[in-house]
Amino acid sequence: MTEFAEVLRQLSAAQKPAKGASLYTRFVNRPAGRLLAAVAYRAGATPNQLTVLGALFTFPALAAVALVPPGPTLAVCVAASLAVGFALDAADGQLARGQRSGSASGEWLDHVLDCVKIVALHLVVLVSFYRFFTLPSPVFLLAPMVFQLAAVVIFFAGILTEKLKRRIPGEAAPASPPALRSVLLLPVDYGLTCVSFLFLGRQDVFLAVYCALLAAHVLFMAAFLVKWYRELR
What we know:
Largest sheet: none
Radius of gyration: 18 Å
Number of domains: 1
Order of helices and strands: HHHHHHHHH
CATH superfamily: CDP-alcohol phosphotransferase transmembrane (TM) domain
Strand content: under 5%
CATH architecture: Up-down Bundle
CATH topology: Four Helix Bundle (Hemerythrin (Met), subunit A)
Structural class: mainly alpha
Number of strands: 0
Number of helices: 9
């Protein structure tokens, strides 16, 4: 147990900066990922193995959304599987930093699977809406398409901005964000999207929550793009 605690301490010391992280990522997903990374460290697993394991939790759950009529049992299973997959997504990076085994190929694999995950999530919601939901209007079929657009733009532009800012000489290390910033970022946290699937069994509630998250993503996308462009000028 003492050795496990020491591994946790080492992983915590190698933690990514908290800037840009919402409450869920900072206080739920990263701590959960740290525990999983510590278990993997003791087991001798590699970061890429954790990345693949996360995909094995995520993609079957997404397939179930498109193939199985929504209900309470499916909702809990999907939300739990997506949350575990997200925690493993945090664990692979923490394990790589803890082992000092990070590689370009590992980062590439992680980002590619993240991209596929984001695209697939809203695609399966669209299929579920079409097959199983009684929508107030066919216009609501556009919601997953717009959500997908906003989520992909935020993901890609965020990574690109981070890469380009490293080229700027004298760029200060990011400070920990204030609590209010972490709260404000919560609606665009992928973890909250995972949690929203708990309402999948209640069509009206899930539709309302999904559309609220969609609106938040569109607003934040516009704000982020302006902010990131100015930071790179």
